[in-house]
Amino acid sequence: MLEAQVEPYDRLREKMAARDRSLREKVMSLEEAGSFVQDGMKVGIGGSTMSRTPMAMIWQLIRQRRKNLSCSRAIVSTDGDLLFGSGASDHIIASWFAQGILWGLSKVLRHHVENEGKNYEEWSHMGVGMRFRAGGMGVPFLPMRAMLGSDVLGQRPEAKEIDCPFTGERILLVPALNPDVALIHVQRCDAYGNAQIDGLQFMDIDLALAADRVILTTERIVSNDQIRRAPDQTKIPFFCVDAVVEVPYGSAPHECYGLYEPMMKHMEAYVKQVNAAPVEGMRAYLDKYFHEPKSWNDYLALIGMEELLEASQRGRSIYND
Amino acid sequence: MTEARNYTAAEILPILSARQLRDGMVVFAGVGTPLLAATLAQRLNCPRLTILFEGGVVGAFVEPGKLPPSTNDQRCTRRANMVLGSSDVLLLLQRGYVDMGFMGGAQIDQFGNLNSSFIGDPAAPKTRLPGTGGGNDISSLTNMIVAMKHEKRRFVEHVDFITSPGFIRGGTSRRDSGLPAGGMFRVITELAIFGFDETTRRMKVLALNPGVSREEVQDNTGFTLDFDDETAITEPPTETELQVLRELDSERLFIA
């Protein structure tokens, strides 16, 4: 993909006008929400690195054997590995791609880029952010001042250097990114999709505004009255949201702010297995944890009660002062 | 070497890096040694240091023994002043609120350019590295301290790929590329402290670490280094610095 596919404004507005944005209940199962994502779509992924990863929805898409997804996220961790390794995605837009800084390079990334020709499209962190923001603002691009002079920009013909029409200064324009669908995991929302996010919000608000459809997974569905008691905590309004799925521990083995930290024993075992054998190790991991479990709860049971409890104890400690 | 060292290479990096910070600064820190060094400075002599993380944290005050595994984890927010979206915290760099950026490096060249993207030809890479993260944004928009291991293969004449710009090709090439603000300030390794010439923008040795010779630094560097006539010798880590550092990283995530 050489040129970024920036949506003409007419097309963006037509798609928005055709969307059912009414105040209605949208609660459904992971399977039902999974049908919103078709092969080849542009999928925006919320959270960052090991935090508030919409892992349950990624798990579902991999189980449904989705293919050729073009995924975008601020920073990918093991979710990037899993999307490449399962064959669900052959194109990932991100600013950083490894399992985590504690573990060095991802051999899964290396295998798929160096040997399989998959595309890790690298932008600076702010570059990814400005692309989602432009998408959310309904403008075709935003100007920014990073990436200039670097080889990161040299790899990105989608971005355009111009002389500013006001000052004459060199400035970079990055194209809007409007995913077909966004996957976002939150601590709580109501049945309409009014979503409250605790702690770090990353790029999720821009992503929700930019995408043509949003699948929200949530630790907990609460009443609309509960939402209205703290409207300042609502970060994504219901009319951006097309599906609501209640999935406790929906980021496991990653973290969800205030509820659980990353499940480090699982992460370490995963990293060891896939970095030792990026193809076979990944296949065995996907079979055991993604394809064989009957349900998300079965998957959690495989991670194990002890890990979930330890992660929860550490997660809740953020509120202890 | 005249006396036995009571510290490791992984310990001297955050300690010497912390000494470069001044009280009152606003510092944008990456995970690992930078986070550790900024937190160490905050505990030792910079109580008014404000630490930003790209995950969206303003005014971090990381808890000893609970270092975050990345700059996007909840541990980063502990006792912070504010959390923001990650784009918004990065935009603080662009507006000019940040005095110093602070990160690690995999490969650096004579002009302070950093590579964390590719080893070999990007079109057919020998090794695909993780990429920039916020590194490119930080190094494009503010002054930089880089803390990294000193090896010949990491200190090269020209990096394979400029992920995070230093002074690009030296001289005025950084400004000419559209980056008028910031630039490399210091590089800290287990062997020496480096600065950059005001005109040529080439790396030069400012001070040798205790017990390290000029030859040792040059032998471990892939390009010819300039030395100041009176190259200083850095004071070794103090007991207090070592003690506070070891308390901060009691799990030895980054100083093992």
Strand order of the largest sheet of chain B: 4-3-2-1-5-10-12-13-14-15
Indicate how many domains the architecture of chain A comprises.
2
Mean model confidence by pLDDT of chain A: 97
Distance between the terminal alpha carbons of chain A, to the nearest Å? 50 Å
**Which geometry of chain A do the CA atoms define?**
globular
Overall form of chain B: globular
Order of helices and strands of chain A: HHEHEHEHEHEHEEEEHEHEEHHHH
Which chains have the largest interface?
Answer: A-B, 63 and 55 residues
CATH class of the largest domain in chain A: Alpha Beta
Largest sheet of chain B: 10 strands, mixed
- Pairing-aware structural class of the strands and helices of chain B? alpha/beta
Based on secondary structure, the structural category of chain A is alpha/beta
Name given to the CATH architecture of the largest domain in chain A: 3-Layer(aba) Sandwich
CATH topology of the largest domain in chain A: Glutaconate Coenzyme A-transferase
